Amino acid sequence: MEFVARESAFDGVPAGATVVANNCCGTPLTLLAALADHAERVGGLELRAGLLLGEAPIERAIRSGALRVRSWHIHGSLRHLAREGFIDYIPVRLSSVPAAVIADVDVALVRVSPPDAHGFCSLGPSTTFARAAIDHARLVIAEVADDVPRTRGESAVHMSRIDRFVRSEHLMPVHPSAEPDEISRAVARHVLPLLPDRATVQLGIGAVPEALAQSLVPRAAEGGLGLIGLVSEPMVPLVDAIAAAGAGPVRAVELMGGRSLMAWADGNPAVEMQSSRRVHDPVSLSALPAFISVNGAVAVDIRGQVVSESVRGSVIAGVGGGPDFAEGAFLSERGLRVIALRSTTKDGSSCIVAQHDPRDAIAAPHHAVDVVVTEHGVAHLRGRTIRERAEALIAIAAPEHREALAEASVV
Q1: What is the DSSP secondary-structure string of 20-48?
Q2: Please, are residues 46 and 25 in contact by the beta-carbon 8 Å criterion?
Q3: Do 355 and 301 touch, CB atoms closer than 8 A?
Q4: How far apart are CA 292 and CA 338, in angstroms?
Q5: SS3 label, residue 326
C-alpha cells in the first residue's frame, strides 16, 4: 500500500465533480480538509453527506462558493450554515440514500483501518452506506487510521477497491452520549411494559433511548430480547447481555461513541456491522416477530403527527431511518411504532402541541404512530378516533400545559 500526500489526494478531480463522504464516527476529517483546499483551487465541487462528526475545516470553502454541500442530516457546525442558506437539505430516508443520492457520485471518501495480512481494511464503526458509495464512485479515496476498529460483518473492504490512500491526521470523531436524567428514566419505565416477549427493539440516539437500553439489560439476560439499528456507548451492557443469552449478534449500521466503544467493538462477535440496504429494509424487518421501533421527536401534536427534523423551520437533524423502522414495525406480527419523548423542552415549552409550526415538516403522519410516551404516561393511538387521540395525548402532556391544550383542541 502506497500513501499519497493529503495535498495530492484530489489530483485530477475536476470542477463540477460530486463527492460523497462517509459519516458519523467514520467521518474522514483529513480528507474533508483536503477536499476544501482542492475546492478552493478548482472551484465548483459538490459534497454529499449525512451526519458529519468533528470539526472539519470546510466552512471557508462553503462560504466562498467553491464547495456546495447537500446533506441529508444537518448536524453540529453545519446547522448555522444551513440557516444562512449555505447548505442544501435533502429530506430522504436512509434506505433511499444509495439510490437517490449517491448513485451518480464521482468520488467516495472513507476512513478505514490499515489492511490486514490478507489486504482487507475495515470501515469500522460506520457501514450505513459506505459500501454503496465505494461501489458507485469512480474514484475511492481512503484515509487510514490505526484507531478504526476491525468490526465484524460487512465492514471489510479489500485494498484493491481503494484507489488512493492518505494517512489520517485526526483522531476518530467522537459522538458523546446523552446522560439520562430522572425524566428520561421515567419515560423509559413507561415504555418497558409495551414490549412483548421476545421482542426485537430498535432504539434511536438520545437520553431516552439510552435510559431504555439500560433498563432492558435484565430482560435481555433472560434471553427474551433482540436489538437492531445502532449501538451507542450506553448500549454496550445490553448488547453483551443479548450475546450472553445466545440471541446475538446485534446487527448495527453505526457505532456511536468514543474510544472505549471502539475498543469493545474491535473483533467483537456480539455486534455485526451491516449496510442500510439490509438493516433499514422494511420487508426484512417485517420478518422479525414483535419488532418494536422506538424513536424520539421534537414535538407531537394532538392528532399524533410527529415533527423530528426541525424547530420553527430550522433543520436540526434528518429524516433518518425512522420511517424505515416504523414501516417494518407496522408489518411485523405484534410489532409496534413508539414515539418516546420528554413532555417539555429545556425552556419549559410543551412538546405535546395543539398544532405544529407550519414551517416544520411532518416526519410521521398520524396514522403511522401507535403509541406516544412521555414521563407522564402512555397514549395509545392505534384504532383511536381523532377526539380520543387528543384526549390521550393531552393526558400525557406536562400538567401545566394541559388546560391550554384542551382549550386549543378543535376536536
Answers
A1: EE--BTT--HHHHHHHHHHHHHH--EEEE
A2: no
A3: yes
A4: 7
A5: helix
- Those residues with Cβ within 8 angstroms of residue 321's Cβ, 6 or more apart along the chain or in another chain: 93, 94, 95, 202, 229, 253, 276, 279, 280
- What gap in Å lies between CA 208 and CA 182, rounded to an integer? 10
Helices 386-395 and 399-408, axial angle in degrees (round to 10) = 160
Distance of CA 342 to the CA centre of its chain: 19
CATH number of 182-408: 3.40.1080.20
Over the stretch 144-182, which tens digit does the pLDDT of each residue have?
Answer: 999 999 999 999 999 999 999 999 999 999 999 888 899
**What DSSP string runs through 237-292?**
HHHHHHHHTT--PEEEEEEES-HHHHHHHTT-TTEEE--HHHHT-HHHHHTSTTEE
Does domain 6-167 sit in CATH 3.40.1080.10? yes
Question: pLDDT digit string (tens) for 350-367?
Answer: 999 999 999 999 999 999
Q: Are 230 and 254 in contact (CB under 8 A)?
A: yes
Contact 226, 250 (CB under 8 A): yes
Which residues, at least 6 apart from 84, have a Cβ–Cβ distance to it below 8 Å? none
Decide if 6-167 and 182-408 have a common fold: yes
Q: Which pTM value belongs to this model?
A: 0.95
SS3 of residue 127 by DSSP: coil
Domain ranges (residues) in the chain: 6-167, 182-408
The dihedral over CA atoms of 239, 321, 291, 238, expressed in degrees to the nearest 10, equals 10
